[in-house]
Design goal:
mainly alpha, 76% helix
């Protein structure tokens, strides 16, 4: 009920979800770079999946009620994380960075 009184609550919730999902994708790319020895293996996807689960816990810790997430919200978090993971890890692999 208090969220209905605050007109910026929905905006803050969206910013929190988007920020955590995108930064999580970048973190997943760096973790994949460090832990995965063969980029063609599926281990990078397991890292990505693990980070999505961690992100949901972080969102809850930051006050986002993930209990009211719809399938669209979960898809959004997974897609944003995947997109940033894919682009960032692709850049790291192409640039030949070794961490």
């Amino acid at each position: 009920m208090a969220e209905n009184l605050d007109p910026t609550a929905a905006h803050r919730r969206s910013l929190t979800v988007t920020t955590i999902a995108t930064l999580g994708g970048v973190v997943a790319a760096f973790v994949s770079e460090v832990t995965v020895s063969d980029p063609t293996s599926r281990m990078g996807l397991l890292v990505l999946l693990g980070l999505v689960i961690v992100e949901l816990g972080l969102m809850r810790a930051f006050g986002v009620d993930i209990g009211e997430f719809s399938a669209k919200d979960y898809f959004y978090v997974a897609f944003m994380t995947f997109a940033l993971w894919f682009v960032t890890w692709g850049v790291l692999l192409t640039a030949g960075v070794s961490l």
